[in-house]
Amino acid sequence: MSDNEPTFSRRKFGQYVLAAGGVSIIGVSACAQPVSTKGTEIVVYKTASCGCCNQWVTYMRAAGYEVTTHNTETLGQYKASVGVPAHLQSCHTAIIDGYVIEGHVPVREIERLLLEKPDAVGLSVPGMVSGSPGMENGRFDPYDVILFAEHGNDTVYASY
Description:
Order of helices and strands: EEEEHEHEEHEEE
CATH architecture of the largest domain: 3-Layer(aba) Sandwich
Radius of gyration: 17 Å
Largest sheet: 7 strands, mixed
CATH class of the largest domain: Alpha Beta
Strand content: 25-35%
Shape: globular
Structural class: alpha+beta
Strand order of the largest sheet: 5-4-6-7-8-9-10
Number of domains: 2
Number of strands: 10
Distance between the termini: 35 Å
């Protein structure tokens, strides 16, 4: 892309910024395409000994995300503090752009979440499902990605 080609970047509440040739125009557009969410920082909380958590971190880095990890011995308390219900918990918890990502959520659904910006706490793949990102072991078990909100409003966001 040349310096003079227009690019769009998404801001909260559907605003888009068009930048071309050093000029920026802010407006609202239903047809503007936001730029990629790759490069966005994601902060992961996990235990030091979790191998599949490390594999998910590697997966996210390979997808172009900046990943910062924090090992903690009080992971359960952290999950509760950010609003992850017990029935949706997995082995690691991440935060990206104000959303909670619980467990082995595929990057495609994280990107969808960041582009759609639903009114929700975040996404979860409960448990540790074989075949989900970071849990590749030669077996694939079907699973759902759950969109969860405050007050127990859970919906299936995607199925694999």
